[in-house]
Specification:
Length: 653
């Protein structure tokens, strides 16, 4: 019996020693100090479900335990006794504890924790014990800034409850005599502040220089605690910007181009806003014209400048002539849409490549997951898609490629591609996808995907980088080339679903009866024009279904004949001989039109800042100079736009 008692005493002594070694090892980051009157002390008894705070005993849901040399305690008890808020996230199985701008997150079974968003290595692995999350005490000490001390069978955590005088100056840049300065308290335990005292906290500092602002706080017991000081630099008064511009002269003819040279300046070179008024590039009524300029610096200081010029009765250009000659390439100018139809059309022939075209635009509006299109192809092909999500859940679009051969590997080369979206304005996605596709054609880069016999892989990953929320549209073009027969499946699944696992369960989406879906031949069309253009006004018509016939194809999902009215996805290319001083300008005939042209290798957005809204506006895409030129033009119809379009060749005065 005596031997058993001695053995029990030895076990207790060893347990207490292990606790002391564990808690006071050199790895500990906090040093135990004697508690001050403004400190709280939490004492835990090893293997006993109770704790005391400042001598008052409370029940604990679980006792403090030593597991594999690490001392643990229940997080719910620690948060409660420290006065922290605690929240549980069932999805991530994590607890978030917060107070005074401090936040710590523990996850079940993790060897790390998160302190104010930063990941911190843990001294042990959290675990569930009788329904409570047990966390290492050392982690809690790190997270709360408390200190730790140990005695045989107990461990104590000490943390300050005294208020602090911390504060910040809200303004980063302060100007003498100008900046209204404010201060924000950052005090810890602010509810313990009885009173405060400031020194140097002026609202406006009269002179430049260095200033020290000091704050002291008094606790509830009447003790003045350590002050907190902030040093600031006050700059000399900010000088407002100066608005200034010039013109080459003070008198201009009607229709004479005017150049405005902005000469505004600021002492900090910090002009953030420039607003012009009446700075037209030309005027078409004689008399005085006042042009104004306002500039604003980053501090909100404003300067205005105005200049009056005189427009004489002499005429250099009419308004129509001026617009044709001086409207910037990619900008817009007004036209009379009915008059454009009176301009003779240019006859042309064309030939097409053998590149296939896969079109996916029906149904244009998606309401849920499903197969958008599927076909088996070999050789060169181009894919285009234009879809809007009108369903209640976010969707992602994928392109799967399946090698149907049982013996031969297949290669898929991805060449030029461009995509845009998700966006709520569909025509914008069509414009940006066309611009990015034309940019990619210039780069001439390719990537290759290899498929083993019978294998299926997702390709063109750019299609599914972002999910389409309700009301959003996505557009894309992609050039592909295969070494052998490959089955391509374009499909949509709910965001978060595994695409290849979900694919076999999907049904084919029904056509909407308004838009196109199918496989066509002839995705590249070379336009051949024999005559030299620019002697008289002429126009080339595209997408009218007559002069420019549409591609016929098949919807391989149901065998239905399909017609690509407008030839969406077809890349047009032409090389034309053009006289000197000729404007090449684009006019939309079917409604809104956008996208891009490539003229002599230079990309021209349609338009620089918006779209062509109707037949009564046009945008210049090129002007020839003083000599005849060979002009090379490429474009493809932007998704979301309307056809037909007219490319005008107009001799300029």
């Amino acid at each position: 019996m005596k031997w058993k008692l001695e053995r029990q005493r030895l076990i207790k002594w060893l347990t207490a020693a292990a606790l002391l070694v564990t808690l006071l090892a050199p790895a500990a980051t906090h040093v135990a100090t004697a508690a001050s009157p403004s400190d709280n002390v939490l004492t835990l008894t090893l293997n006993k479900a109770q704790v005391s705070v400042n001598g008052t005993t409370y029940a604990s849901p679980q006792p403090a335990l030593i597991v594999k040399g690490v001392t643990y305690a229940p997080i719910s008890m620690l948060a409660l006794r420290f006065g922290y808020k605690i929240a549980y996230n069932a999805a991530s199985k994590s607890y978030t504890i917060s107070t005074d701008g401090n936040s710590v997150e523990f996850k079940t079974g993790s060897t790390s924790f998160w302190l104010n968003g930063a990941k911190v290595a843990s001294s042990g692995k959290t675990y569930i014990y009788n329904g409570s999350l047990m966390v290492p005490l050392r982690d809690w000490v790190k997270a709360t800034g408390s200190t730790l001390s140990a005695a045989p069978g107990t461990v104590s955590l000490t943390w300050s409850v005294a208020p602090t005088a911390d504060f910040k100056v809200d303004q980063d840049v302060i100007y003498a005599g100008q900046t209204q300065v404010t201060y924000t308290s950052l005090s810890k335990n602010a509810n313990k502040i009885w009173s405060e005292s400031w020194d140097g906290n002026m609202s406006i500092f009269p002179e430049p220089g260095t200033y020290v602002i000091t704050r002291s706080v008094q606790d509830m017991a009447g003790n003045w605690l350590d002050p907190y000081a902030v040093s600031i630099t006050v700059l000399p008064p900010n000088q407002p910007p100066v608005a200034q511009f010039t013109t080459e002269k003070d008198t201009y003819m009607i229709g004479e181009p005017i150049t405005y040279t902005n000469q505004s300046y600021d002492d900090e070179d910090a002009i953030v806003s420039t607003e012009w008024s009446n700075n037209k590039r030309g005027f078409f009524v004689s008399g005085p014209q006042t042009i104004s300029l306002r500039v604003t610096d980053r501090h909100g200081s404003i300067s205005d400048f105005s200049k009056t010029i005189t427009i004489s009765t002499d005429v250099m250009y009419t308004e129509a002539e001026f617009n044709e000659r001086f409207t910037l390439v990619g900008d817009k100018y007004p036209v009379v849409g009915a008059d454009i139809l009176k301009i003779p059309t240019v006859p042309y022939t064309f030939y097409s490549t053998n590149r296939a075209l896969i079109a996916s635009d029906s149904p244009e509006d998606l309401t849920g997951p499903g197969v958008l299109y599927r076909d088996t192809l070999a050789g060169d092909l181009r894919l285009f898609l234009y879809h809007q999500n009108l369903g209640s859940e976010p969707l992602k679009i994928y392109l799967a490629a399946t090698n149907e051969s049982t013996t031969e590997s297949a290669s898929i080369d991805l060449g030029a591609w461009g995509s845009a979206g998700p966006e709520t304005f569909g025509a914008y996605t069509g414009k940006m996808a066309a611009i990015r596709y034309l940019d990619a054609r210039d780069s001439q880069t390719t990537s290759t995907t290899w498929l083993a016999p019978g294998a299926t892989k997702l390709i063109v990953p750019e299609l599914n980088q972002k999910a389409l929320s309700k009301g959003q549209t996505f557009s894309a073009y992609a050039d592909l080339s295969t070494s052998t027969n490959v089955k391509f499946t374009l499909f949509a699944v709910k965001s978060g679903a595994d695409p290849l696992t979900t694919l076999p369960t999907l049904g084919v989406m029904k056509r909407d009866g308004k838009h196109i879906r199918g496989t066509f031949q002839g995705a590249d069309r070379e336009i051949v024009i024999q005559e030299t253009l620019g002697d008289t006004a002429k126009r080339i018509v595209f997408g009218d279904h007559s002069i420019d016939p549409a591609l016929d194809g098949i919807d391989q999902l149901n065998g239905q004949p399909e017609n690509n009215w407008g030839n969406f996805g077809v890349v047009y290319h032409m090389t034309v001989q053009v006289k000197a001083n000729t404007l090449i300008s684009l006019n939309a005939r079917g409604g809104i039109y956008t996208g891009a042209f490539l003229v002599n290798g230079v990309k021209v957005p349609v338009t620089n800042t918006s779209i062509l809204e109707n037949p009564n506006v046009a945008t210049p895409v090129y002007r020839t100079g003083q000599y005849n030129e060979t002009v090379e033009i490429s474009y493809l119809t932007a998704l979301g736009s309307n056809l037909p379009i007219t490319l005008m060749f107009i001799p300029m005065k």
